[in-house]
Amino acid sequence: CALPISLYLIIVVEPIHGRTNIFIYILICSIIGGFTVACVKGAGIGIKQFLSSDPDFHINIFKEPFAYVLGLALFVTLTTQINYLNRSLDIFDASLVSPIYYLIFTTCVLLMTAILFEEWDAVERGSDVVSIMAGFGTIIVGTFLLHSFKSFDVTLADLKEQMRLDARRRRDREQGEQRDGTLTGEIKDGV
Description:
Elements: H1 2-17, H2 22-51, H3 65-91, H4 94-117, H5 126-148, H6 156-180
Helix pairs in contact: 1-2, 2-3, 2-4, 4-5
């Protein structure tokens, strides 16, 4: 499913909308990136089996054709992913590309690994699903906040000065209210 979608985006959609829509390059990169992560996980499993001393679990990855297919797929997906990420960063601002890419990439990785490795079968309780979704939501909100306020230039000295000004205003307001005969929070008659 990932390959046809990626090919459609690359062949049909990218030439028309790639330079004007930030999501095209990011979608291509994220879908291919999800497949890259699945390839890396497969390669890791193969290496683990190759290094195993258990004869029932050990395989020689150099004699397995699938290991070569996996290596080739990993090379192609990595280079494609980096190519389209660079294209996106060349055209659009990195402060826009980064959070959108992170969100879509994380979603694609979760979906790809869940489908290929059937990881959702290990989730037994509803609270596990809620925990996974809460963690994913925390990542989304955290990424949004980090990128939203990264250009917010406030130093500790600025905060201290603002706190002093706020305290001075509060003190002046309270003194003015005491002179006028009103208590803090009361409204004067006739005002």
